[in-house]
Amino acid sequence: xxxxxxxxxxxxxISGSLRRNSYNTSLxxxxxxxxxKGVGFDIVDLSDIPLYNADVEREEGFPPxxxxxxxxxxxxxxxxxxxxxYNRSVPGVLKNAIDWLSRGPESPLDDKPxxxxxxxxxxGTARAQQHLREILVHNxxxxxxxxEVLVARAWDQFTAEGDLADNELIDLVGSLMTALVEEAGxxxxxxxxxxEAARIG
Length: 201
Ligand SMILES: Cc1cc2nc3c(=O)[nH]c(=O)nc-3n(C[C@H](O)[C@H](O)[C@H](O)COP(=O)(O)O)c2cc1C
Fold this sequence. Notes:
The protein is 43% helix and 13% strand. Helix 1 (23-33) crosses helix 7 (167-190). By secondary structure, it is α/β, with parallel strands linked by helices. The two termini are 23 Å apart. Strands 1, 2, 3, 4, 5 and 6 form a 6-stranded parallel sheet that branches. It has a single domain, classed as Rossmann fold, CATH 3.40.50. The protein binds flavin mononucleotide. Flavin mononucleotide is lined by residues 17, 19, 22-24, 84-88, 119-123, 154.
């Protein structure tokens, strides 16, 4: 079996918040910056994803923004999802995107190595992450179980420039990214040394 290589891996970030100064999007940027050197990273924008409507899917197929999102996820070797907590669960924006992604005989989410983390209020998105994990596991997503990254009282943890100030939390985000790349390396190298299958999508 070929040794896992990180050089050709690509990780896609998804933020559950559309807010301009979102703590969760800041957390995702940090996660991207802490990926091992050579690993590609980008964050997708969910603001143009329409509300799921089964009539639209049946009559017209996937709307162009949904088709683009599905293709980008299919090409990525791994995902990292940062979720806020809205009313003790995941925001509708994120759930709606997952609903579109889950459709079809083949979902781009299938078996995708995925890390989750979140920044929120007193409980640091614990309940939102629990729900998100359940939703993703139902969709055959390979969600990492550890380490758990929960940023509580986000407004106290980020600087005005959107940088996370707590070194222990930064290290935890780094560990999560190391674990994600390790997992993605296994998936893309076991049967496919160049990782081409994951990139073709
Ligand atoms: C509609 C709504 C519901 C919320 N519900 C919760 C909640 O249940 N638990 C919590 O910790 N924070 C809750 N919050 C606060 C958000 O977690 C907080 O605003 C967070 O910073 C949003 O993430 P963002 O900075 O990435 O936009 C809620 C905020 C909104 C707008």
